[in-house]
C-alpha cells in the first residue's frame, strides 16, 4: 500500500499486488462525494414512475435511492438472499418489485 498526501488538498492511496497497481483511491477536498457512504435519513418523496425515493439525510440536496439499490431482505416477501448480488439489477435476476 502506497500513500501520498498533499496536506489539505489531496490524498492518494495505491494498492499493489505482485508489484502491479491493483486499486487506486484519490480523495480531494475540493470534490467531496456522498456516494457510497452510509447515512441515516428520512424518505421525503416517493416517485413510483421512476421506482425511486428521495431521502433527506441532512445535506442541502436530498439523496436519490433507486429500488434496484435495496438489498432483497428489505422487500415485502421477507426472504433474504444468502449471497449479495453485487452489480446486478433486481429486475435482471428474475425478481421484480415496485415502489407503491
Given helix and strand content, the structural type is mainly beta
Number of strands: 6
The proportion of strand residues reads 35-45%
Shape, please?
Answer: elongated
Describe the largest sheet: 3 strands, antiparallel
Fill in the keyword field for this structure.
100 residues, mainly beta, 6 strands, 0% helix
Question: Can you characterise this structure?
Answer:
The chain is mostly beta strands and about 100 residues long. The chain contains no helices and 6 strands. The chain has strands at about 1-5, 10-15, 20-30, 40-45, 50-55, 65. The protein has a 3-stranded antiparallel sheet, with no helix packed on it. Strands 4-5-6 form a 3-stranded antiparallel sheet, with no helix packed on it.
Secondary structure layout plus pairing:
Blueprint: E1 2-6, E2 10-17, E3 20-28, E4 42-47, E5 52-56, E6 63-66
Antiparallel strand pairs: 1-2, 2-3, 4-5, 5-6
Nutshell version of this structure?
With 100 residues, this protein is mainly beta. It has strands at residues 2-6, 10-17, 20-28, 42-47, 52-56, 63-66.
Amino acid at each position: 500500500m502506497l500513500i501520498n498526501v498533499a496536506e489539505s488538498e489531496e490524498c492518494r492511496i495505491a494498492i499493489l499486488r505482485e508489484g502491479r497497481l491493483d486499486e487506486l483511491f484519490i480523495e480531494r477536498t475540493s470534490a467531496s462525494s456522498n456516494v457510497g457512504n452510509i447515512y441515516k435519513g428520512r424518505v421525503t418523496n416517493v416517485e413510483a414512475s421512476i421506482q425511486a425515493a428521495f431521502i433527506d439525510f441532512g445535506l442541502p440536496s436530498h439523496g436519490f435511492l433507486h429500488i434496484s439499490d435495496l438489498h432483497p431482505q428489505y422487500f415485502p416477501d421477507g426472504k433474504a438472499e444468502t449471497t449479495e448480488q453485487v452489480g446486478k439489477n433486481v429486475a435482471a435476476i428474475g425478481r421484480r418489485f415496485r415502489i407503491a
